[in-house]
Amino acid sequence: MPADRTGPTPSEETSLKPVHRSFLLVRIALLAALAMPAWAAPLPTAEPEDVGLSSERLRLIEATVKGWVDKKEVPGAVVMVARHGKLAYVTTQGMRDSARGELLREDSIFRLYSMTKPITTVTAMTLVEEGRLSLQEPVARYIPEFKDMKVGVETFDPKTGAQTFTTVPARRPVTVGDLLRHTAGLTYGPPLSTRTQIQKMYQEAGVWSQSWVLADFARTMARLPLVHEPGTAWEYGHNTDILGRVIEVATGQTLDKAFEDRVLRPVKMTDTAFSLPAAKTGRLAQPQPDPYSGKTPDLIDFTQPQGFFAGGHGLVGTAGDYLRFCQMLLDGGSIDGARVLGPRTVEYMASNHMHAGVALGAGYLPGPGYGFGLGFGVRTDKGGADYNGSVGDYYWGGYAGTYFWIDPKERLTVVFMTTEPVRRTQYRIAIRQLVYQAIAR
Question: pLDDT for 200-250, tens place per residue?
Fold first, then answer.
């Protein structure tokens, strides 16, 4: 559904100019006294130098993001950097809603899209710890329609241009582990997949609609052919949506309730949800027209009630909420005395699960130097990637421009939130480079 683009245009020229503010969290009380919006830091705060960061070098983040905002490449952005469990740097710049002339704030709410996936995966792993799920189990145990899946086989004759399509029985069942690793054979389609016939079947089934009930969506997906044999290739797709339905069956709860009980409430992610109450819709960060194409990105309209609990893309949340989620993982599955997962489970999730027999292919999103764990891209090679990081760091991002990474070696967590899907990769790489160059010790 299209994003909300309505609202009055401010008449005052000054109301349209973005205000840029970057500050250390130890000064929050002073800013509040100056009538800045009240905001509670998600973690204890520290000066950058106290946690081995350079204040001077961190200011390059502000300057860079300010440049993006000034050129109208992004409407606004929030960057939060924490090290050794302390929030040391925040910059919040630009507009929450450019059409309304409303500033972005630290507590603005963003469409998480695929940053929903790690939350779904963590929820599933709490059930694995309890013995209520197993990665080796067939998905059909929870969704019977996934029994006897078929694999689509497409051929193309370059001489005649003839295309053929047939299906063959899958050699083994799709397992719960396949869903977590994106090796089930489910896809999203172009540009990540070129299986034209299967893509056509996806379109005819209406899998891109936001009007689904999760149980019906899962049954529909089970009737569609897989794009490869289970366990043989990494393919980004609706795996985590199906995992959400597995969680519902295993818990007897709807996915939103399972999230609330197992992750959101313990971690105190108070602004993360599948739907926004009316009182919070005015905090939702909105896209703006792209300065190069003139088109406004078509994003899910979370100002309207959402009933599709999509474990792959359905949440909204704040940078602060997600920073707490990241810190929980960095600290081995607990935060503020609340334990979500055991430390060995987190370590297992953040390990590379792409063994030599798994084909990665051209659509392998983690990219060079990265494997894939249970819900995250995991760095396996210091020099093999196109940007800075540490072996063992893990990350993911969302379609609308959100991004996070966790670096256990540096005891570092970073969350970057914006609403700009077109050039999101270049912005993420820039933020990574800027954070790592600010590490002084």
Answer: 899 899 998 899 999 999 999 999 999 999 999 999 999 999 999 999 999
Cα–Cα distance for residue pair 395/385, rounded to 1 Å: 13
∠59-62-66 over CA atoms, to 5°? 145
* Record: fold of 132-251: Methane Monooxygenase Hydroxylase; Chain G, domain 1 (1.20.58)
For the chain, counts of helices (H) and of strands (E) = 12, 15
Run of H or E residues at 21: strand 20-23
State the Rg of the chain over Cα. Answer: 22
- Look-up: residue for tokens 């503020």? 336
Closest CA to 91 of 117, 55, 125: 55
Beta-strand (E) ranges in 43-131?
76-83, 86-97, 102-103, 109-111
pTM for the complete prediction?
Answer: 0.90
Q: Is CATH 2.40.40.10 correct for 13-109+254-437? A: no
